[in-house]
Amino acid sequence: MNAHPTGVSQGVRPLRTARRENDMAGSSFKGSEIHDVDEFLVSDGIETEREKEIGQHIGYRYDVNLVPDYDRLTPFLKKYIEFMGWDDLNWLEDVHMGYEEGMPAVFDRNNNGWVRVPDTISLPDNQQDRDMIARELLIKFQMSDRHPLVALRKAYMKF
Amino acid sequence: MAGVSDAELRNMTQDERARALGMMTEQLTGKSLYVEFDPEAEERLAYPWAPDVDFNKRTEIDCDGKTTTEVNARIRELMAEGYGTIVLQNPRGKHSLGVGILSRLNLIIEGSTGYFAAGLIDGPNVHIRGRVGWSCGENMMAGTIVVDKNAGSTFGAAIRGGDLVCRGSVGSRTGIDMKGGTIIVGGDTGALSGFMMQRGRLVVCGNAGKNLGDSMYDGMIFVGGQIKSLGVDAVEAELTELDRKWLTRKLTQYGLMPEKGVDHFTKIVAGKQLWNYDNLEPTEKKLIL
C-alpha cells in the first residue's frame, strides 16, 4: 500500500477510510469472490446463505476491474487497433469473457445480451488470454452482417 | 430478412419493416444466450454501414455562419466522401459539435466548444485544442477525446467505453454514472467525481474534491494528488503490479506521465456494501406473498 499524501496543514482532511485490512477491495463484499478461472463453468456460483436464499449468484462472474495485459494481444486485435487509429484496446478494455448458465459467453452491449462461445473453441487456463479471445470474437461478430444491429438499423434507423 | 428489398422496406411503416425483417417474433427470456459466435466469421474491422474513410484524406469546415446541425451534417457528408481527417475551424464555443459519429475518423476542433462536445461517439479520435463545457464525451461508446485545456462539470457522464482525456482540470461530477471506459484528468477534479460509477477507470493526476466515488458500484479510481474526502462506500485498495503497468502505459500514451512515476497514486474501489441492495428482497417478498 502506498502512502497517501493527506495533509491537515493544507486543509485536506485525512481519508475517512483508514487503511485497514477489512477496507481492502473485496473484503467487505458480502457476495462471492472469484477464486478460480473455471469457477463458473463448474459451479452455479451459489455458495453463501444469501445466494442460497435468493437462488442466484450475487455479483459478476468475472473481474470487471481486470485491466488488460498488453503482452497478450492477439495479431487480430493489433490489426483492429491500428485500423481504428488507436494506441490501445480502447473500449475493448472493458470486454471480458464471462460465464452465463455454465457456459463461456461475452456480453455484447450492441445486442444487450450474452453471446455464447462455441464448444469448438478451447479456453486458455487464464482470464487474460480468455479476455483477448472474447474481444476478438466480439469484434468479428459486431462487424458481421449476422449481428442483430444490422436488421435493427434497417428497421428503425431515423437518419 | 431475405426476399425483402430495400425499396419495399422504404414503403412500409416502421412496424411492418420490423416484422418483415423477422423481428418481434422471438420471446425474450431475459438471458439472451440464443446467439453463438461463428469461429469462422470473416475478419472485418468496421461496421457494415461505416463509411470507408482514409485518415490521409484531410479537409476543413469553417463553423462561422453555420449552425451546429449544419456542421454535424457536413461532417457526415465528408465522411461519406471518404475524408478521414476533418478539422473544424472557428468553433466559437458551439454546443454539441461532433456528436454521434459512429465510425473511425480523426476530428480536430481548433478552439473551444460548449456543452456536449463529441457526445455519443463510437470510434473516432477527437482532439479539441481548447476548453470544453459541460458533459464532454457524454455516453461515448468508443474512440478517444483529448481536450488540451480545462473542462466543465460532468466530464464523461455515463461514458460506456473509450478514452476521454482532459490535460487541464475539470469541474464536479466527473465520470458520474460511468459504465466503462477510461477518463484521465491531467489536473484536478471537483466534488462527487465518480459518483455512482458502475465500472471503468477514472484517473486523476492532481487532486480530487470531496465525496470522491460516492455510491460507486464498481470500477476503479486512481488519484495522484490529495483526496478531500471519500464518498459513501468508496474504499482504498492496493495498487497491483498490473495496475501500475496499465497506468504507466496509459499516462505515457497521453503525455501525462508524472515525473515521479505512478507509485504514489491512490487506488479507490467500491466497498460493495451497496451491492446488496436486494438484501431485503426475500423478506419483502415474504411480506407481500
Regarding quaternary structure, what we see is: heterodimer
Average predicted confidence as pLDDT of chain B: 91
Give the overall shape of chain A, derived from the CA principal axes. Answer: globular
For the largest interface, the chains and their residue counts are: A-B, 85 and 82 residues
Major β-sheet annotation of chain A = 3 strands, antiparallel
Number of helices of chain B: 5
Question: What gap, in angstroms, lies between the N and C termini of chain A?
Answer: 52 Å
- What structural class should be given to the helix and strand makeup of chain A? alpha+beta
* Uncertain parts of chain B: none
Residue fraction in strands of chain B: 15-25%
Radius of gyration of CA atoms of chain B, rounded to a whole number: 22 Å
CATH class of chain B: Mainly Beta
CATH architecture of chain B: 3 Solenoid
Q: What is the count of β-strands of chain B?
A: 12
Kindly state the percentage of residues in helix of chain B: 10-25%
Write up this protein.
The complex is a heterodimer of chains A (about 160) and B (about 290). With about 160 residues, chain A is α+β, with helices and mostly antiparallel strands. In chain A, about 30% of the residues lie in helices and about 10% in strands. Chain A has a domain at about 65-155. The termini of chain A are far apart. Chain B has 5 helices and 12 strands. In chain B, strand 2, helix 3 and strand 3 (about 85-90) form a beta-alpha-beta unit. The model of chain B has no long low-confidence stretch (mean pLDDT about 90). Helix content of chain B is about 15%, strand content about 25%.
